[in-house]
């Protein structure tokens, strides 16, 4: 047990011994005070430490967060057995050894069964409080850990998305300058036109690279301008075919995806007037396809893989739909998902995390309310039992508040831990998942 718990037990033992000494002891002597102190320390430390050690052991071997139901069953069984044994031992030491009020035969004959039963109930209430407190601490740690993990995931996704978008600017500029350097030697006049057009295209890159999604129409207009530049350089060696459905124009794709894929087509295939490279951009089953006849060139230098992998990763952060790649002996095709709505998954993750944190806070308040109720029950009911037994032992009335409040406490616990909003949300998710599978 922790030092803090031992100190708490010490003060509880001292307070209990003083209470019983001044209230229930007729002869106020030093011997009786020491006896009262000894008995109080015995009950407090044996019952408190016994239940505390059981709770600590179960926390290590079977944490609440890993197997809640199994842990609850084992906790109930263990505290019933342990407290029965510990109470019988403490009462035996008290009445037979210290006070010498009974012999061993009288103690086990059933004369003290009522006192044993009463003490066991008090011990069980205290033990239930300790285990409930352990459960609450474990739940708070788990909830806090989950919230922190979700925030880290959201921040990581956001940082990853920004990193991917930042690849586009230098990547486009590098490839465009390569094209321009080739044109300067081959056709200076075309190089001038290319420079003017490149400034227009680069403006689009700067405008769109910070966006998560753009319309298919905007991306096609940009792709056509870029294809004109490629046509300027390669002339009859490259041909472009656009066949995108008009209804797809107002839908969305990741920005600069067509430009990256067009670059890949040029980069990984050879193109000549006798064997032109034909690049098709068309609609197919809610996807935007970029297909080229396969004329693979030998790669002197291994590709960095920025283009296609960038697109795949950006789509993975924005939607559950995948980018599909098809390759055969004759063609190479990439299918980009065309999205009907404009999702904002990164910000949604952060919002979902904030909502999860709010739910976690609300959950902790509900649990605190329950344990406040439980602590009150553990304090008030034993006090009522003591008052009843002292004032009118022939008329037992403490059963009524104990049972009534106990039923209410059980209902409160069931609402918080079993059939509350958490259970409702879980059932709603199960129903929605079944409907989605149909």
Question: Low-confidence stretches at least 5 residues in length (pLDDT < 50)?
Answer: none
Number of strands: 7
Shape: rod-shaped
CATH 4th-level superfamily of the domain at 155-347: Histidine kinase-like ATPase, C-terminal domain
> What's the CATH topology label of the domain at 155-347?
Heat Shock Protein 90
Backbone CA Rg: 38 Å
User: What is the residue-averaged pLDDT?
Assistant: 76
| Helical run tally | 12
Strand order of the largest sheet: 2-4-5-7-6
CATH class of the domain at 155-347: Alpha Beta
Counting helices, strands and paired strands, the structural category is alpha+beta
- Order of SSEs, N→C? HHHHHHEHEEHEEHEEHHH
Strand content: 5-15%
Helix content: over 70%
Q: What is the CA–CA distance across the termini?
A: 53 Å
Main sheet overview: 5 strands, mixed
The CATH architecture term of the domain at 155-347 is: 2-Layer Sandwich
Short description:
With 438 residues, the chain is of the alpha+beta class.
Topology:
Elements: H1 3-24, H2 30-61, H3 68-98, H4 104-111, H5 113-186, H6 188-208, E1 214-215, H7 216-234, E2 238-243, E3 252-253, H8 257-268, E4 277-283, E5 287-293, H9 306-318, E6 324-327, E7 331-337, H10 345-391, H11 399-417, H12 421-437
Parallel strand pairs: 2-4
Antiparallel strand pairs: 1-3, 4-5, 5-7, 6-7
Helix pairs in contact: 1-2, 2-3, 2-5, 3-5, 5-6, 5-9, 5-10, 6-7, 7-8, 10-11
